[in-house]
Queue: 2 jobs
Job 1
Amino acid sequence: MTTNHPTAAILIIGNEILSGRTQDTNVKFIAERLDKVGIRLCEVRVIADNEKAIVETINALRAQYTYIFTTGGIGATHDDITAECLAKAFNVPLEVNEETFTILENHYKESFNASRQRMALMPRGSELLKNQICTATGFKIENVYCLAGMPTVMQNSFTLLLPNLKTGTPFVSNTVTCNLREGDIAHALTDIQNAHLNVEIGSYPFYRTPPDIGTNFVMHGADPIAVTDATNAVIKMVEQFGGTYTVDWFERKDESSMEGDTL
Amino acid sequence: MTTNHPTAAILIIGNEILSGRTQDTNVKFIAERLDKVGIRLCEVRVIADNEKAIVETINALRAQYTYIFTTGGIGATHDDITAECLAKAFNVPLEVNEETFTILENHYKESFNASRQRMALMPRGSELLKNQICTATGFKIENVYCLAGMPTVMQNSFTLLLPNLKTGTPFVSNTVTCNLREGDIAHALTDIQNAHLNVEIGSYPFYRTPPDIGTNFVMHGADPIAVTDATNAVIKMVEQFGGTYTVDWFERKDESSMEGDTL
């Protein structure tokens, strides 16, 4: 389905995800919020703290999507190489960002050592991305937003930058949870998908402890009426096949429940 | 750091991750287990249920890494397109896998409808990947392992296939959690990293409710003695800077605690 929504990719820079040590939660936080403002998240990549991988991936992604959000590698230690890699990717010098330097200097005072001064280095042309949690120095260069990996800091930075993005018609989605098995209704569901081409219909079976077996149908799109129509068609299908169901309608997903879901 | 470990990438095929609806947990499950058997996970990608994206990504990844693990798109409905995309990527016909057809036919009996028969279609040259939870039809073609997206099914399939992979020297990691701020010790930590080049040292600050502020140092590598040496050097550094700490040594991460951690 092609629409004129702005597009996005997320790049997680993090050995700690690739080694299995850490469960990433940054993708879901960003993805939910992009969806809500009508920016289509097209791709996520997780790569190692490795210069070649970061430079190549940034250059591949930034040419392809409206916005790129990176997380990780912002800090004072040897493994924090996002800023220098971005300078290489954009082929600009890495230089002191004066605004950032002043903020860090005022904050750290006599503890503003050489390692922390390194945190003020950004690719030429960057703007500081602030957060209200700590002095972590996220930055934006052209369409690439580099954020901290730490979830609390990333979430705060992202919330502050979100209102500045170019957005599209918000996406909405409804979920129908039923006790039918997807193989029994697959043909009928295909007919519904074909009759509602501007709605993405996903089918997600679950096998928990029997008899808790069934399928979630998710109807997702930018046209609320079309999403509602497709949802009603799915409900009718479930009834015709003798199933029982519950529906999570998009109207119920307000901001407060979304926060509760992810924090 | 270059080693002769087998390498891997994970490809999550899933609109439900990109829309923010679903929190992925498959990456951490697979990543932890690959690390433990000495297969280096180099990259993760999440892409949409889109033929062009799947075919191009599979071909990019399979040329680059020893193993590719995909999750999602295995099933009976219109959005399950992994098998046909893999046939296109490998440029082979999509055809009935007889073993799979027989298993499905015996299981579903009179419910073995056209949609479910579609689940027996695999790229020519595939082998069925079984699981003990349900009849989801994962398959392997050359170095690409296609698994279900449902965590319980994926986890069971992956556990069954893992002993058949070519492995390397297991990776181990220790974590030192301390109450120092990374900016204060960054220089000393760089010296430790430079003195232990076959250990990856990661620094992950945390800012929870003050005074619960500090840093996790993670020492990760395939040489347990080198990882222990680097850990002891970090502990000595923390003591020299007047910090307090706890250590999570790799010996304590046995299989049962890993299971508890992820399931």
Job 2
Amino acid sequence: MIKFEVLKKHSHSSARLGVLTTPRGKINTPCFMPVGTQATVKALTPENLESIGAQIILGNTYHLYLRPGHELIQELGGLHSFMNWRHPILTDSGGYQVFSLNKLTKVTEEGVKFKSHIDGSSHFISPEKAIEIQKALGADIIMAFDEPTPYPSDLSTTKKSLQLTTRWAKRCKDTFQPGNQSLFGIVQGGMHSSLRKESAEQITALDFSGYAIGGLSVGEEKNLMNEMTELTTSLLPTNKPRYLMGVGTPENLLTCSSMGVDMFDCVMPTRNARNGYLFVNGGKINIKNSQYQNDPEPVDSNCCCYTCKNYSRAYLRHLIMAGEILAMYLLTLHNSTFYQTWMKRIRQAIEDDIPFSFSWKETAE
Amino acid sequence: MIKFEVLKKHSHSSARLGVLTTPRGKINTPCFMPVGTQATVKALTPENLESIGAQIILGNTYHLYLRPGHELIQELGGLHSFMNWRHPILTDSGGYQVFSLNKLTKVTEEGVKFKSHIDGSSHFISPEKAIEIQKALGADIIMAFDEPTPYPSDLSTTKKSLQLTTRWAKRCKDTFQPGNQSLFGIVQGGMHSSLRKESAEQITALDFSGYAIGGLSVGEEKNLMNEMTELTTSLLPTNKPRYLMGVGTPENLLTCSSMGVDMFDCVMPTRNARNGYLFVNGGKINIKNSQYQNDPEPVDSNCCCYTCKNYSRAYLRHLIMAGEILAMYLLTLHNSTFYQTWMKRIRQAIEDDIPFSFSWKETAE
């Protein structure tokens, strides 16, 4: 079981400094969880993740259920042992991927029928099944099975959807056996304030160990996302961790931390790295750009990561242009370091109770 | 300049234990050089290579000339600095790749015209140009530009080819300015004993710092390769290092070490790893095989590499089946460790002057 403690409140925003204690270790919040979709954070070893200060990673139930299968992972000692990561893991419920990776899903009160994106085989996941899979995987924090509402959706569709999510959340809660695991509920409600309120009331009434804000960062404008995050966060209990799912840019992390969000996850740092987009102070660069062809400077001279300490932009550009595997490692390591360092700066500012004096903007190149 | 010293002769074979001293460090021989084609040994960092005991790596002149270009690498401080490898490097001359990666090459006395395999652009490399490129790259040991004889080739074709190689070798020698670099000559002669003898006589007469045996492992039977290697090695001076290019399996390394070869290079351990073929004592396994699906054992329980110390066959199989980048790293690290350990065992047996009591066979699965 987890324990969450708010250590300090920021007087310049609604941000809070916290510590989330799990059976496998402590997590300083606000935190960013690197995404380990298929039992690996792409291109990084567990030691790399430790070295950059990651205290918790995320695993994807949908992917692991399909391949290699949750029973296989259980048989081999659970996800931690399987992937050699001894620190905390959070698994999502699979709901998001079931819908985003499948064009044809059939949703009933009972659950969701879908076809595997790998081999087309038919599958069915119910709230009970999602909990069973996550129990087999053995993550420290697991998520209720929800129906993410597509964007845009009208009031009536969104209302029906959030109510289904509530009934599924209750079924998850009922079937869940705590033990070493903790279960988080997910608030939906689309982009409708009244429905965010309705969902938050229903989900918090079920008394979970933590609460996630789902259904955001799905194509809506930044301001709308911020509005929904701020509203939803204000509706959640202050003594439980708040997790904004699938978000986002460094700017998002700063803005939403200042609204009182404690946990984030996103494929952005790792996926961007593999495409040559590197996060630096103030923005993002595309290392494939010809301007870096003979650039002897590191990606970011202020960055303390292995990549920036040892390699030039010219070398990194060469590696990615030549399709070399080492590029994937070096660039992922840099971006992942940037994200962990970014969260550390946010936590430090809360600790010191000074305004957030740094910013980051998505730059067009 | 290099210095080569034979420390001990094996009384059970023609093997010898040696030490090759270069301006960037010592290399214990017989040695295996991991191949760093495009300024990176695929999937490994320099620290990984150090940790497995690699003392020298190979770079490919042809690839680096085309991308990112030798002038660019020179501008950035040379290949060592560019790729962050402070230990010895050997570059090949580009001859082999010019022919093997191009269907249309035009060979004249002057040199070779060819088209880039990357963008189809036209290029010309002469012996003088090959030395110029290798000077810019700055490897510790560089190779003369040769014409590898295709297999099979009749006596007359092979004779003409080896004589061209000799004239080119002389031009390389003439244009070469020693400084910190050392130049090796390459013996050709195909599968014809009389021509191997002719080539060895002509090349050794030019007095290089070391001698390579080229034109083998090109599709001929194992026994024929061994016969040619044994013959050629016997024709080379005993006080200079002997390098068998592009070879081979662990069995080849053992057999040819016992004939007095001191240096080897091959893409086999790294390329096999990326395809799931792993070297273990006594043979090779294909980790993709379904028999490893739920196998909790390491690849090789006697192996001391990071992969074998921390991961199950089941996990490695999952990673490669899922197309994960981490698989490339973990499998390459294992195979590269196997090769370095294999050479260490060979050196130890010579040192102890005991017969080679171990063997390895290519196994069909």
